[in-house]
Amino acid sequence: MLFLKELTHTILLHPTFFGRNLRSALKQRLYQEVEGTCSGLFGYIIAVIEIVDTGKGVLQTATGHAEFNVRYKAIVFKPFKGQVVEGLVTTVNRMGFFADVGPLQVFVSAHLIPEYLRFDPNANPPAYAGENQDMQLLTIEKGVALKIRILGTRVDATEIFAIGTIKEDYLGP
Amino acid sequence: MDPTNCSHEIQFRGMCAMCFKNLEIPSFEGSHTEKATINMSHNALGLLVSESKAKEIERETAQRLRKQKKLSLILDLDQTVIHATVDGNVGEWLQDVNHPDHHALKNIFHFTLAGDRDKNIYYIKVRPGTFEFLEKAHKLFEMHIYTMGTRPYAEAIAKILDPTGALFNERILSRDDSGSFQEKSVKRIFPGEGETMAVVLDDRGDVWSWSRNLIRVNPFNFFIGTGDINEPLGKSGRKVAPPPNTQESTPAVVAPTADVALPTQSSPTLNTESQTSPKPVETNASSSDTRTENTPEPQITPELAPNPAPSTPQPPVHPNPRATTTRPTQDNDRELEPIWTRLQTIHSRYYNDSFDANLQKHVVEWDSDVRKIMDSMRETVLEGCCLVLSGVVPIGVDIAKHDAYKLAVLFGAEVATDVDEWTTHVVAAKTGTDKVHKGMRRKGVHIVTPDWLYHSVNNWTRLSETVYSLMDQSSRNRTNTNSSVNTDIASLDDDEDGAIFTATLNMGDWADMDAEVDDALAEDSDEEDDLLPNGDEGISKDVQEVEKVEEEEDEFDFDDDLLSREIDELVGAHSDSDEEKTNASKRKRSVSPDVEVKK
């Protein structure tokens, strides 16, 4: 799920940036250091919306760097159990397939793919294919977009992985 | 699924893919993550399966392959089917239409890897015959790529070799995925049953620990001096892999004798073909850096260029040998043809008649094993040979761990520690060792260079011992050092990159060759020796390399016997003084007194 969240980040700024452009330098550094990272607590930081407060820089006596405690608002993405997400298939093998949901990697095991979709090792690229009840031919191969329900997540300090299913109504391609 | 009943057979990054439980949290029953340890997929996405699940998947694959009558083929890229370089000179050279070697430049592709900060342009030369080979192999084999290159590199190459993806179809394993920079293992792709259906093609045997599934290919060296751009860490190919440039030693013996040098239209035995097509590419490796600066003389047209390909009907043209010294590369590699016949044999022996019978009876089980088939093919190569290695294994190294020993045993030979009545060959790196002397005293014992072993193993044929005779080699090396004897010969040696090796030989020629060498030995005259193109530099270097080790070993051999040690030093002194004179007949005389002393 996506959230707008107020977060803080500490930036150490080199004395060469002390001057008129200090604020833009701070902004640059914040974008560089924060966007695209993942914290276990809040999930992936997708984009910084605004800087709330940079605070007053405190000079470090030993290095001359200034330390800024920046408060900013950002869009964060955190997957939850039971959430339905849309993803793009990246890899298909006989154990299942992987899909990218933005920065998140989701694995869908072959057990959690409907029975009518069978793995075809001779297909190029490898694919799960079959007809559903409505005699509609469906294929899951690299590049296909589909809906996945997240069943489990594992949250590391810097990474999140998820396991999903498409074996439910209205899920899948 | 209920986590308490789940066996957690498929795990993704510490999570069970079936019950979604986080398995990294410790429990009463011990670690769950240990239940699934095998990475089955070609890429490194963190998907692990348990042993039983892996076997189940393997079984499915094996049955599917058997239904299609296919086997698995694991293919290395660098120096096996392609040769890559990042040398910018190649770019200029590609654009120069007037370049005499322009005809050799077909099948060179180039690409830049995304995310490469240096923007290196990779030039890829595809080994001649690769596309045909892949096309043919596709019908009998399901092919995998297994390379020490990075994933983007491997994918870029796969795109060249197989633009539609029909051949490899994402079955690409790179060093990013394999988890090892030093070793390759069949088990990485086939943890279970699939191993019995997998054939490996690689130019390096050591990275596979000389696996029984391996067919070693002679390395493809097109861009001289480049080597393998993805060489495994901490392993020097030179040390373990037999030096490829010693290939020329065989044709070198016969090339100047004009009548055998006539190329023959067809070669009945493909194995000899690979042996007889000399690889001039490697001989001028020393000129690697300067190759594009020295523009070859423009009057050399490609038609005049020596083409040792077996299919050339024209008689050998002998242009001024000097004119060919700056030739950057040659496009005459035919290595894949004998490999293909070998693969066909393996395939037909796996899917033999009894397989069809079984299939009709709907017997699913099939216990045939390509490794057994390959073993039996290999074992006939040196069958009945009892080898004694001398000066090959460095002192302090366990003989059973040395490549020479492993290869000899793999190819059906027996290896003994000392010369006895069963000995058939003494494989010696230099003359003058105790074992060589003992071998010389016994009748019917061949004394050969290590190259005999390595080349026989490469070609899966027992090559003629006469050609690799150590006595012959060393006498040729000796005359070679004495350049004042014949300056023409010396200059020929420098230029031996193809002009004088236009010979292509088949089996019949080998007999001629043997006869001729025998004659030469019988006459035992200097002139005769000089006529032979001596000087395979690779060999002489090799001999020098082992010589240091050899000296140590000699000491070791006679450590318990002071007398014979003294004798050995005497021999050393003799041969030292001989080298100044470099006379084959004198050398023989110098050997014979020692033998008498020993008696």
TrEMBL record, chain A:
Gene Ontology molecular-function annotations: single-stranded DNA binding; single-stranded RNA binding; translation initiation factor binding
Superkingdom, natural source: Eukaryota
Keyword Nucleus applies: yes
All copies of domain S1 motif, residue ranges: 82-155
One GO term describing the cellular component: RNA polymerase II, core complex
InterPro entries xref list: NA-bd_OB-fold, RNA_pol_Rpb7-like_N_sf, Rpb7-like, Rpb7-like_N, S1_domain
Major subcellular site: nucleus
Similarity comment text for this entry: Belongs to the eukaryotic RPB7/RPC8 RNA polymerase subunit family.
Protein name per UniProt: S1 motif domain-containing protein
Record organism: Chytriomyces confervae
Automatic annotation (TrEMBL), chain B:
EC category name: hydrolase
Catalytic reaction(s) noted: O-phospho-L-threonyl-[protein] + H2O = L-threonyl-[protein] + phosphate; O-phospho-L-seryl-[protein] + H2O = L-seryl-[protein] + phosphate
FCP1 homology domain sequence ranges: 66-240
Residue ranges, compositional bias (Low complexity): 250-264
Segments of skewed composition (Pro residues): 305-319
Chain intervals for the UniProt region annotation (Disordered): 234-335, 521-540, 545-599
Gene3D superfamilies in the record: BRCT domain, HAD superfamily/HAD-like
Compartment list: Nucleus
Keyword set, alphabetical order: Hydrolase, Nucleus
Coiled-coil ranges per UniProt: none
GO terms assigned for molecular function: RNA polymerase II CTD heptapeptide repeat phosphatase activity
Enzyme Commission number: 3.1.3.16
Main location: nucleus
InterPro entries from the UniProt entry: BRCT_dom, BRCT_dom_sf, Fcp1, FCP1_dom, FCP1_euk, HAD-like_sf, HAD_sf
GO CC list: nucleus
Residue ranges occupied by any BRCT domain in the UniProt entry: 377-470
Domain of life per record: Eukaryota
Amino acid composition bias (Acidic residues), ranges on this chain: 521-531, 548-561
Extent of Polar residues compositional bias: 265-298
NCBIfam families documented for this protein: FCP1_euk (TIGR02250)
Task of the protein: This promotes the activity of RNA polymerase II.
Name by which UniProt lists this protein: RNA polymerase II subunit A C-terminal domain phosphatase
Organism whose genome encodes this protein: Chytriomyces confervae
